[in-house]
Amino acid sequence: MPIKPIPLTRWVFVSPFISILNEMGAPTASLLAKFHLPTHLEPKSNHYIPLFPALRFVTATQLSQGIADFGFLAGRKLRFEALNAQFRATVHRSPTLLAALQSFCRFVQLEDNMLHVRLEQHGPSLRVCYSSAIPGAEGMPHFEHAQWLQNMVAILIVRQFAGPQWLPPTFAFQARHVPTKETQSFWPNTRFLSGQNAAWIEIPVSQLSLPVRMRARAPSRSQEQPFCPIGTDVVTALKLMLPSYLGADVPVIAEAAEIVGTSARSLQRELAAADLTYSRLLEQVQFESAAEMLRETDARIIDVAHATGYADPSHFTRAFRRMAGVTPREFREISDPP
What we know:
The chain is of the alpha+beta class and 338 residues long. The chain folds into two domains: 8-224, H-NOX domain (Alpha-Beta Complex), CATH 3.90.1520; 234-335, Orthogonal Bundle (Arc Repressor Mutant, subunit A), CATH 1.10.10.60. It has 16 helices and seven strands. Helix 10 packs across helix 13. The protein is globular, with a radius of gyration of 21 Å. The mean pLDDT is 87.
């Protein structure tokens, strides 16, 4: 039986929770390790991690550290600049808020591969509604953490048109969650709803024609690439999430299987069906991560080796030459001609 689709989210959506824990002096690294999440705390913002361990991590740390409305606190730390660069450029090239929200419906799966967004008009308001393709997601305990951030992303988009202080008239949770009075006091003019058929925020229709407040610069090559939703199959999911673990936390196959919620035997079978082994897949991920660092940074070769999971730089050079046909230094010279 094939492995179920693997929900992923970008690391940047867990970073605000980690920042709060660090400010509190909590044992963040050990808490992350308990839930099989990267512990070196500084993966690139565009790296992905498995969603379920991330939600379990947030829920457990909220309880153990006694943090009320953890999702709200994390959402306040989230910035528009944390969103996917390709989508940010699209927002800043949109002629109106409505056009940006329509693009968001397409781009959301660059942030979370199981998430869907739709726009619904209700009288004088438009709702930006979130739903998950994960079976039973609406009944998961403490799913409000994800819904705080989901709705916050929509708010950040609106603020590019309506100004940095904009807040929604209504903020709805699909989860059965009511924010504390202290949290609600920060947004005194916002109505909070619990147990809805989707998570959503409300935007007055009169604001949908607002122009963007800051125009985009000329798009980079990466921002001009056509949109392609990320996959949910095991090979794609592993390729996307393993870069977050390179450095100090490279999982062996049994750990990788536990992270994606299956057995090592099932994971081996799934990889074999794609003509891969776990070691070959990991080698591909290490090579692609190293090639990206060599092209896009001035990091020393030894630092690239360590960042991509090689303790021995000479081993890294041999492995890279086997994949690319040239050494890392030669690759950098070819990629960055004078």
